[in-house]
Amino acid sequence: MHDEPIIRTGTSSDNEAIHAIEQSVFKEDPWPLEMISQEIAEDPSRITWIMELGELMIGYCMVRSGPGEVHLINMAVEPSFQRMGLGKRMLDHFLDQIPAKSSVFLEVKRGNFPAINLYLGAGFEDVAIHDAYYRDGSDAIVMCLIKE
């Protein structure tokens, strides 16, 4: 097994492993396999990055892009690999790929303090609240970063 994780572009063969991580991280409201498959479909406006340690997928990051704007739509790290700086590494990789002068948006569950702190540490700012955004009625904080 490799000592350092690698980050690569995702493919449709990753759908099941992404879904497994999705179920373990977002137990109350995981994305269905069909939604994951749609995000990994061949579409130049969508990209998924996969973080692997050896042959084991330990995280993913899904984004959609448009003119001057990028939306981080889903990101997770397998629970047994959390609190090791891997989410930050994946977020940094994603942000390194973004063209200058782009606006980067995301939504995060109001009570997800580890993720909120990760995003604040990367320079994101709160810009809005979506009331009852999630299926369980939780609010989402909309965050934005303007890439210089």
Give the tags:
Aminopeptidase; globular; Acyl_CoA_acyltransferase; [Ribosomal protein bS18]-alanine N-acetyltransferase; 148 residues; protein-N-terminal-alanine acetyltransferase activity; 35% strand; seven-stranded mixed β-sheet
Summarize this entry quickly.
The chain is α+β, with helices and mostly antiparallel strands. It is built from four helices and seven strands; from the N terminus they run βααβββαβαββ.
Report on this model:
- With 148 residues, the protein is of the alpha+beta class.
- The chain has a single domain, classed as Gcn5-related N-acetyltransferase (GNAT) (Aminopeptidase, 3-Layer(aba) Sandwich).
- The protein has four helices and seven strands; from the N terminus they run E-H-H-E-E-E-H-E-H-E-E.
- The protein has a seven-stranded mixed sheet with strand order 1-2-3-4-5-7-6, with helices on both faces.
- Helix 1 packs across helix 2.
- The protein is globular.
